[in-house]
Amino acid sequence: MLIELRIRDFAVIQDLTLPLGPGLNVLTGETGAGKSIIVDALALLLGERASSEDVRAGSARALVEGVFDVSSRPQVLQALDEMGMASDDGLVILRREVQAEGRNRAWINGSPATASAVGTLGAGLVDLHGQHDHQTLLRRGAQREILDAFAGARTLAAQVRARFDACVEARRTLASRTERLRQLEAEGDFLRFQLEEIQAARIEPGEEGALQEEAQRLSHSQELAAELSRAHELLYAGEGAISDRLAEVGRLLTRVVRLDPGLGSLQEMVEAALQSVQEAGRAAGTYAADVEHDPLRLQAIEHRRDLLFKLKRKYGPELQDVLDTEERLVREVRELRDADDDLAALESQLDAILEEVVELSARLSRAREGAAQELAQRVERLLPALGMTSARVEIALLPEPEMGRNGAESVEFRVALNEGFEPRGLARVASGGELSRVMLALKTVLAEVDQVPTLVFDEIDAGIGGTVAHGVAETLSQVARHHQVFVITHLAQLASRAEAHLLVEKGSEKGIATTRVECLAGEDRIHEIARMLGGDPGSEASLEHARSLLASVE
Q1: What is the CA radius of gyration of the chain?
Q2: Which of 254, 297, 300, 516 is buried most deeply by CB count within 10 Å?
Q3: What own/partner pairs with CB < 8 Å and gap ≥ 24 does 86-95 have?
Q4: Is the torsion defined by CA of 142, 464, 501, 106 positive or negative?
Q5: Looking at residue 90, what DSSP letter applies?
Q6: CATH 3.30.300.20 is right for the domain spanning 1-125+499-519
Q7: Which ranges constitute the DSSP H helices of 46-139?
Q8: What is the pLDDT of residues 168-204, one digit of tens each?
Q9: SS3 518
């Protein structure tokens, strides 16, 4: 619900705050007082294109701000939370700013936003009637949603959309899979050749390093044998070997320790060194004796290394890349082998989803067919009371060339306002007043299912009076039981039924025209109703007429 509309430096409005309440709110005033400008400001908030011409003369910027109570609308609160603009108090504040040099900005709950985001959110909160660009019911998509709501088929329509989207995704998956397998099939022989080539090599992880080490040993086997034999001699086996000399030092220290036991640690170090040298010497001898000079093995290793090098050049650059390629080729060859089964499974899945879409769409079509005529008849029955005695209403279900995410047909609300004419789409109805009354009749029927909480009607009383005026007033009162309704009117019959009556007056501020709004009650409201009734607003007859009109609806 819109609880407050704030307008500053917009057109002739300097600073204006409109407090609005639940039920029926009316805005009245003399022609030219600025009532339509208030609607223009609200339209700006709902996404209308901004213009520097909207800025009041002498001002740097124009501001329009709407405060909405959305505490009873969890879907709006969730949308705000997803946008990172959560509301802790159940309020949402939309704001548009237009600068004199042409730039414009927008905010949602104090956070910068795009004008389109503000407009999108606002469109779910306010339905503005009177200006074609902002009439939700002129859009076929909205008409379809309203019919579905009236038919109690919102959940069914959502299921159709969900399964259709799943069908589209299944088709995309099948097409992608088919194309993928087509490409693999075109390369099938080559893929199998590559896999056989790599698998024939029987590559072991890490073998490249081991081959390099073995090749190094074999290619230097004679040098290794000679050098390690020399080391064996020096450390352990030769005359005057280091181990013999250390043994001699050990015997010397054995005698010394008897004289000074404190030298025991030195003796231990020498004994440990002797053991290490002996062990190293024996190991060098063993290695020298076991060194193998095997030209055939070296040749085999070089052949193996050449093979790995060629594989790396083709599938590398590293050996691990070759192994990774092998894994990929195994998967792709398996894909080719299982292609028929995979495609059959995807086609079966698609057929099942498509069958669901067809069945759900058929159910949705039946629900729409059953509701379309009833909705049209109920709306049509309301139109005579709104001054359209010859009007006929039709809700057409137009088959689509192909089934879509919204079912098998589009929906168009049509009306013929004069006898002898065929019904035409609502968007082609010329008169703003007549169009607003058609919308009012629809809103009356749809009041319990329509999700937009605030309805704004402009031009709804154009060219009507007398009995029709009473009919319009009664109809709006019915709608206001389910929605907040904001009406700009010249009808005293309508104004007299309002829960909140706002008067727009034009004045002057420092030589510049300005508009102000006053909340009316008591005698002030009686005088305004008397003015709207015509005649002399100050005469006792007019005032008594106004009192009786107000009393009749209390």
Answers
A1: 46
A2: 516
A3: 91/67, 92/67, 92/68, 92/121, 92/125, 93/65, 93/66, 93/67, 93/68, 94/45, 94/65, 94/66, 94/68, 94/118, 94/121, 94/122, 95/45, 95/63, 95/64, 95/65, 95/66
A4: positive
A5: S
A6: no
A7: 74-82, 115-123
A8: 999 998 888 888 788 777 888 888 888 888 888 888 8
A9: strand
